[in-house]
Design goal:
By secondary structure, the chain is mostly helical. 84% of the residues lie in helices and 2% in strands. The chain has one domain (2-204). It has helices at 2-43, 48-79, 89-106, 119-160, 166-204; strands spanning 108-109, 115-116. A two-stranded antiparallel ribbon has the order 1-2.
Length: 205
């Protein structure tokens, strides 16, 4: 029995280490690709207007990724029966509500006979939690949609710019494609980080 417990403990530790190493390996690859795409953009010698557009698109893309992460975590909170690790004030607030719900569910009032806390009180707090999370998801989705629209508008503005010189026009399109290549990679990198973060959360509960 003791041997089984020790072997299980060692296996779990080794598995966690393997997962951490794989995550770091993947992030190194993703970061290297990101650096290469960034360098490829600047190697095209973009003008100041193109650089400004690229920076805006990439900055808003970062915000878009953050909103996607919030949506993913919030959706998990809706179905999770255990508090997720908290990283923001909002997370701590929801965790406190979930802790209170757990306590209410387990509390027994001692009088002539044991009775549980009225279900209406539990249901009210549970509904409050769901309302807060659902409203936060709606807000995050609206912000994600707004950021997506900003990216689309900025990209269309770039594409609408025409050069009389065919060569300059082709160079401009190449620059626009380079901006999009990095933006697309940023989304892939962000999605990988979101899924890994969620998987880490689930392993901790």
């Amino acid at each position: 029995m003791l041997s089984f417990i020790i072997n299980t403990f060692v296996y779990e530790k080794q598995q966690k280490l393997r997962e951490e190493l794989e995550y770091k390996r993947q992030m190194l690859i993703l970061d290297a690709v990101d650096h290469r795409l960034m360098q490829a953009f600047y190697n095209l010698k973009p003008n100041s207007s193109q650089i400004a557009s690229a920076r805006r698109i990439w900055r808003v893309t970062t915000k878009h990724i953050i909103m996607n992460e919030q949506i993913t975590i919030l959706q998990q909170r809706l179905i999770s029966k255990q508090p997720l690790p908290a990283s923001t004030l909002f997370d701590h607030t929801i965790n406190r509500i979930e802790t209170s719900l757990t306590q209410l569910d387990n509390v027994v009032i001692q009088d002539d006979k044991s009775t549980t806390v009225p279900s209406s009180q539990f249901e009210t707090m549970n509904q409050l939690k769901h309302n807060i999370i659902n409203q936060s998801i709606i807000t995050a989705r609206e912000m994600a949609e707004n950021s997506a629209q900003i990216i689309l508008d900025e990209t269309q503005k770039l594409l609408s710019f025409k050069h009389d010189d065919q060569h300059l026009h082709e160079v401009h399109i190449t620059v626009v494609n380079a901006i999009e290549d990095r933006r697309y990679h940023m989304m892939q990198r962000g999605n990988y980080m979101i899924q890994e973060k969620l998987a880490t959360y689930l392993r901790q509960i």
